[in-house]
Write a structure and sequence with these properties.
heterodimer; A: two-stranded antiparallel sheet; two-stranded antiparallel sheet; 16% helix; B: alpha+beta; Aldehyde Ferredoxin Oxidoreductase Protein, subunit A, domain 2; Aldehyde Ferredoxin Oxidoreductase Protein, subunit A, domain 3; 3 domains; six-stranded mixed sheet; globular
């Protein structure tokens, strides 16, 4: 089986600086920086004790009905927060101007610009 | 425009109206941004003689062309107004994400004018501007205010809420405490100059912002190259790559104590015997939950902390900065890290500057030990206010924010406290603002930097500790006066333009960030054709506008002074033991270099050269 690229996320290393969002938007918008148009977003928990980078998967035009809970460090999070899908219920992973869903193309710029070690490119499979 | 987003939002709280104006490209070019542009607007639009807490004062949130672009340590947003603490021009900066978000919403600056009748907060959602009632959050502390407003503007949706960033004041700002700060994202402080009191005087509790537009970059290929080069330089530098991320700005507490800079008991002694207990290393090891960075910064000097020791229990907040360890710690004789972390968190929650709180309490403690302040003055029998009395401090800080009893006197700041009891010389500050945590008798350039800073005693306007102590970029002798006037002028002009106006955090320079890196990033983002000599000229222009504001406000060369202790009492320790600061010698040369007369007034020729009047 052919190996494919994956971006590995180490949550405990993320500092929440948002540099991945900035470089992703600059790469795909060519001359503009706009984290709201980024294909990676960093969820910053209210208490700032947890940061979760989330990378855009494929899009859907329907809201899901699942109500899953994810437990991280003993704290409960709505799965919606960590979900990678560009869906109508969530503002992330849509072009703010056109509303078009955005998907990560594994260009690797975010990994290159992540100095904290929270993102790493690997080959798997 | 590139780098800048080209718009100013002007809000009149008296009439509850707002309008959007174009950012004048000439103004942007000549003052770059941040405190530079805002100082010029304040000078042009506000009579420097007004009462800083009157509706005539204008409060600005000013971003910079690099803010939010991902240039190295480019999170800066400036809060600017006439200061009620100093009576001079007031400016202070915070990091976090508020400034970036303001840019993404499409504004370089927000100018707040007038005064609302009732408490309000401003909600900026791209082009939609609302002045909303703050009835439900008035009186609340910073963290709760932030949470409640975030919930209100996003209907409690945590995902939408994440993209809202809020600058707010706590009870101290509402009660016009002269040391009140403006807090961004709960824990990042624009602490100095009492600008939270200006916000409170306008009945403005908070500004909340969300933006979905972008910032265009002049040369994106070049920008990516130069940003990557700056990141590589800083993340491989021993301080930028190691000390800062691991220990925050407090990583140098022990070293600065060894070389005689760290304050001890209102600068009465050197060194501080408890420094080893309160270093950034100890805090990182025992109290830090995780590291946290501001927008676009590899230094990640912040992060929530947790304390379990009674009575200083707390969780969340932020690890304290070097200045807080120096002024709340050493200068107040406190060597218990739990107490310092608690006081830091309390100041942030109440919205007060940790530096001026430290300077004010250190002054009060010396007055108490010298029996200038009596037990009756304090208003309670059971607690003493000797150096090291952290529990009293915790209690009195609450009273200060709410202006209760003796706290009402402390709320006016250390200078007014010392003057009230007939001993103004016991306040270690300049222009009524407390000195930073570096004893200038062991780093003489810092003496001139304190004396000449336009906003009052301050280390950030010319951080001569870098060359004099750390040898960055080249080592200079810290114990002599020679050469310090040109050093201070050069550093002031450089910091004002390439850092403060461009949007770069001053910490990054200690982390190995070079001025060439800063210029390259500014140039690639704006494409405005800036050069280093031109930036130094812009710094000089900013410095002179602030000087003109202060002169018109009634300040004179007599205000370019140092506390008597630094001028007359020989250093009790450190490499400069036995020395005092010879300020007059440096000041005379400094005025000449600035093109100012002997009274510190800019000459007409200098103003013409800078295009000012």
């Amino acid at each position: 089986m052919k190996k494919k690229k994956v971006i590995k996320i180490y949550y405990d290393k993320c500092t929440g600086c948002g540099q991945c969002e900035i470089v992703c938007s600059l790469r795909h918008l060519k001359d503009t920086i706009n984290p709201k148009a980024s294909r990676i977003r960093v969820y910053r928990d209210k208490d700032e004790e947890h940061f979760f980078p989330v990378i855009a998967g494929s899009g859907t035009d329907k809201e899901c009905i699942s109500k899953n809970i994810v437990i991280q460090d003993g704290k409960e999070y709505d799965n919606c927060i960590l979900c990678r899908t560009a869906c109508p219920a969530k503002p992330w992973f849509h072009d703010p101007k056109t509303g078009k869903p955005l998907t990560c193309d594994l260009c690797g710029d975010c990994v290159e610009w992540c100095f904290s070690g929270a993102l790493g490119m690997q080959l798997s499979g | 425009m590139n780098g800048w987003v080209g718009k100013i939002l002007r809000v009149d709280l008296t009439s509850k109206t707002h309008k959007t104006e174009e950012l004048d490209p000439g103004l942007a070019r000549d003052f770059i941004g941040g405190q530079g542009i805002a100082s010029k607007i304040l000078y042009d639009e506000v009579d420097p003689k007004i009462d800083a807490l009157s509706p005539e004062n204008k409060l600005m949130f000013a971003t910079c062309p690099l803010t939010g672009t991902g240039a190295l340590s480019s999170s800066r947003c400036w809060v600017v107004a006439k200061s009620p603490l100093t009576g001079a021009i007031g400016f202070s900066t915070f990091g976090g994400y508020f400034g970036s978000e303001l840019k993404y919403a499409g504004y370089d600056l927000v100018i707040i004018e007038g005064k609302s009748k009732d408490p309000v907060y401003l909600w900026i959602d791209d082009d939609r501007i609302e002045i909303r009632s703050a009835g439900s959050v008035w009186g609340k502390r910073v963290g709760e205010t932030d949470d409640l407003i975030r919930e209100e503007v996003t209907d409690g949706d945590p995902i939408k809420g994440m993209d809202v960033h809020i600058a707010s004041i706590g009870p101290a700002g509402e009660n016009r405490v002269l040391m009140a700060s403006v807090m961004a994202d709960k824990t990042r402080a624009a602490g100095r100059c009492g600008l939270g009191a200006v916000m409170g005087s306008k009945n403005l509790k908070a500004v909340a912002v969300r933006g979905t537009k972008g910032i265009t970059i002049a040369d994106h290929k070049k920008f990516k190259e130069v940003v990557a080069a700056a990141f590589k330089r800083v993340t491989t530098h021993p301080v930028g790559g190691n000390i800062f991320p691991a220990f925050g700005s407090a990583g140098l507490v022990e070293y600065f104590n060894e070389v005689g800079l760290f304050p001890n008991r209102n600068f009465q002694r050197i060194p501080f015997e408890g420094a080893k207990n309160i270093s950034g290393q100890i805090v990182a090891e025992k109290f830090l939950i995780r590291k946290k960075a501001c927008s676009g910064c590899p230094l990640s000097c912040g992060g929530p902390v947790s304390v379990t020791e009674h009575p200083f229990e707390m969780r969340g907040g932020e690890r304290p900065e070097y200045e807080t360890y120096g002024l709340v710690g050493g200068s107040c004789g406190i060597d218990n890290p739990s107490a310092i972390i608690k006081i830091n968190a309390l100041c942030n929650e109440l919205g007060m500057d940790t530096m001026d709180i430290g300077a004010t309490f250190a002054c009060a403690m010396e007055m108490y030990e010298k029996e200038i302040l009596s037990q009756e003055d304090l208003g309670f029998r059971s607690l003493t206010l000797r150096f090291g009395d952290a529990e009293t401090m915790v209690r009195l800080i609450e009273d200060t924010a709410y202006r209760k009893k003796f706290g009402n006197i402390l709320a006016e700041g250390g200078y007014r406290l010392a003057e009230r009891y007939g001993h103004p010389e016991l306040f270690m500050g300049v222009k009524k603002m407390g000195c930073s945590a570096y004893d200038p008798r062991n780093v003489h350039g810092m003496g001139l930097a304190y004396a000449t800073s336009t906003r009052g005693a301050c280390h950030n306007r010319a951080y001569t500790v870098a060359p004099e102590i750390l040898g960055l970029p080249e080592k200079a002798d810290p114990l002599i006066e020679e050469g310090k006037a040109p050093m201070v002028k050069y550093m002031q002009d450089l910091a004002a333009s390439l850092m403060d106006a461009a949007g770069i955090c001053l910490f990054s320079i200690a982390g190995g960030h070079t001025m060439e890196d800063m210029l390259d990033q500014l140039e690639a983002a704006t494409g405005a054709g800036y050069t280093l000599p031109e930036c130094l000229k812009i710094g000089e222009r900013i410095w002179n506008v602030q000087r003109l504001f202060n002169l018109k406000a009634g300040l004179t060369s007599a205000d370019d002074n140092l506390p008597r202790r630094f001028l007359e009492e020989p250093a009790p320790g450190g490499p400069g033991k036995g020395l005092v600061v010879n300020l007059n010698k440096m000041l005379k040369e400094y005025y000449e270099l600035r093109g100012w007369d002997e009274d510190g007034v800019p000459s007409p020729a200098k103003l013409a050269e800078l295009g000012l009047k």
